[in-house]
Amino acid sequence: MKRWLKTLILTYLSLLFFGSFLAVGGLWTGALENSFPVISEIEIFLYYFFAGSIGGSLRHLYMFCSHYMKGELTDYREWIMYIFYPIFATGTAVIAVTLIQSGIFLIEFIDYKDTPLAQISIAFFVGFGFNRFLNKLNAVSKNLFQSNKKNNGNDE
User: What's the pTM value of the predicted model, to 2 decimals?
Assistant: First the structure.
């Protein structure tokens, strides 16, 4: 992997990580809502979104740095993972919390002083381990939509 690409990835992941914290701070203080009143309608989803972003970017910052230190950033095709996986993690975190709140997954949240801390925490964990969550989601989907016919080894 070329040096400029490594620098770009590190800068991108760092901006995503720290920018998500700033966005959460802007949501928490109401600064974003004052600037963009429409945010109040989707504020809770933005908390989940940014928590997933923090988790996804943290994990990939860690992976990038550990692979860099071991001299393992030799495959130029890996850039796509570092750029897109944190983005996928954000949406996956929102969907995960929605699935849990719908009752499909048997996890019950307890609200603490009108703050959805448990949901935000789950969104962070899903962002951090989103590929593991997708594996579990895939297994649940297979079981949920499995037909009575023999599968013959096909996944679809």
Answer: 0.83
